[in-house]
Amino acid sequence: MKSKTLLSRSLLSVAVASSLYAAPMIASAEEAAKEELEVITVTSRKKVETIVEIPMSVSAVSEVELANRNYIDASDLFRTLAGAAAPRGQLILRGLSGGNTTTPNTTATFTDDIPFAFTNLADVERVEVLRGPQGTLYGSSAIGGTVRVITKKPVLDEFELFGSMIGKMEKNVDGYDTSTSLGINVPLVEQTLALRVNGNIQNNQRPMYNVATGNQSESQENFIRSQLLWQVDDNTSVTFGYVRTEYSSQGTTLGDTSKPGGYYSLRYIDNPDAKYGYDVEHKWNECDPEWGRVRCVQGGDFVKGAVDKYAIYSTFDLYSQDETDLFTLNVNLDNIAEIASFTYAGSYREYESNSLDDWSRLDADDLFKTWIVNKGKGERTTHELRFQNYDINSPLSWTVGMFYDKTSSPSNPDAQWQYLESGDQVSAAANYWWSWTGIEDIRQMAFDKFGDGSKIWNLRNYSEWDKEMALFADASYTFKTDDMGEVEVNAGVRRFDLEDFSHYETEGVWSEGVTSIGGEEDGNRFKFSLSWRPEDNYSIYGLYSEGYRPGGNNGPLAAACQADPKAGNRKDRYTSDSIDNYEVGFKASLFDGRFNFTSAAYHIDWTDIRTTIYMDTCGFRYTANAGEAQSRGLEFESTATLTDTLQLVFNASYTKSELTKDNVAISGKKGDEMTMVPKYNAYIALDKEFELNGKPMFVRADMSAYGKYKTHFNTKEGDQVPAYSVFNLSARYEVNENVKLSLHLDNVFNKETELYRSDRSRSDSTVAQKYIEFLPERTLAVRLDYVFF
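Below the sequence we write its predicted structure tokens.
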């Protein structure tokens, strides 16, 4: 974690060299950006339109606004959107969570028309959020909505050097967070070839402190992105892209509020006749029932001034490492025989992941050390071909296309290994504590099966792949009248075919068996809308849209899970779920564009919910189709220019999402509210512009508010997240035309509240974690943005 990667060193070297040799030149894009903010155009329907023209609920945030709010990652933006929830970073729209997990994958993310969850906002031109099922144009896993990240593209006629530096500190958290970005745009051949390269390095000191190891949680995230634009002629452009992302972390972001009331210890009795020289007994050691786990295990003592709520006790520090290399190709032909335009967006990526999970607590009550190492690798290929009408002034607008997506994993004998620490005492203790497995000598079993006494369980992945092939079409016709304005009728369809296969084998202490599963599935998803624009500046629409998430295969069921009450609901294969969305909306741009708002009301029916099932007795999970649900809500977003120098932003929503049938698999009952979903959320911000020493200065005050919500069906006290609000202040000063300096003070009143909490176990287990994640305490960030030409 402490060493710098090659990517980090390369980016810093470029930054230093560029700063030494690039002289600042006078330029400013501020006025152009302000003009763009007045009438924001989006490409949500894969053509350029204003928000008022689109018959769906869409939010769009520009580059200038992203910088003003100091948003570094898209998850920062999600918390301000009407109808959005992001309890642990992943976006959940319109109440479509579906289970007991914070990562239901009900929204899809596309970066430059490639399905790629790239949410770092450095050198991003715009972010669009499309609410509701997008099962026609954007396909699978977009049942709640789609996030579109549009990066800045190479410029053919200008040399640019740009970047930003951010330093941030949080109360009661040791160390500083840093983010450094640097980019360059270089015209290579006049009006023909240009290269744009940018990168970012982030280092985050996280609050959780492991008293067992003495280490504070931390993470590092890097990326470098390059785009080579070839303008073949006036009608044809080709863009080659490459993205390298790296992520590594040590420790956890989740705290633990469990109060175990005691802990187990072992007594070893010398016995020369025992194989490992010991007989074993265990003892329960009581502690004050009001003590947290750390204080209990340490006998009442605490360590070096760590803040109680940030202290955890884990025999290992979790770690994870992820790397991705993504290659992209985008081709645009603006005019094919004055009939159509053509677009191709394709990608190929390779990725690897490594992580360590500490199972000493759940499997061994911390009496000895056991851990799991996960290793994954794979590749993914996507293609999208799209034809659209050439005449943008025609009343008939149409899009037809094809989408192909295949993900595969090669043979991987090391997909998962569980390890047991060495030593005769541990060998004796494992045989004693795990006697219920029926294995007489676990260490000997490890030698016999794997030739290594430290390896006690293995998951091998022989083959795994899934693919989707889809054809889609979308057409609209606009009727223009003299007295009634414009009426647009729109219809779309997507035909999809899914196919998948997986072949696993497990061996060792927990399970023995081979699983080979494959399946196919197909279907159609439709969309219909009717919108009325009496005038150019407002519209009323009605929309029906459908969505789906692909089905797939479960891994093998561990022997330790055979008796779990929820194991009976497991099937080898689960199918796609289905979403039906009914929506009406009203949008307007009034008073010469000084007041803009969008509003929507929706009703969603969700069937065959694809959800993750946690088996409490063994700690494993599987996926199932479980039940039906309904979500209804109201959304409102607005921007008002109160004076020439004062602007107000107000967003709010109400969501009622609940099960409509009993759902035994997730312990849910008819009428239960969905997890992770507050009934309301709101965001309000005031922006004031004035001059300081003859230079522009901008001040912003904003507040976000969320209603209470639960994180689990069969809800326990530890699954309740209270309502909260947070107040922030920021200021930006334009030092000169090239340099902007800003300060951002978040959680000004230093409220102590939670973003997330959940009990891992449904029983009164003294072992399982009671997870908690806190709202960051008062945080001060300093940001420097610079642009040199």
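Residues 6-21 form the longest helix (16 residues).
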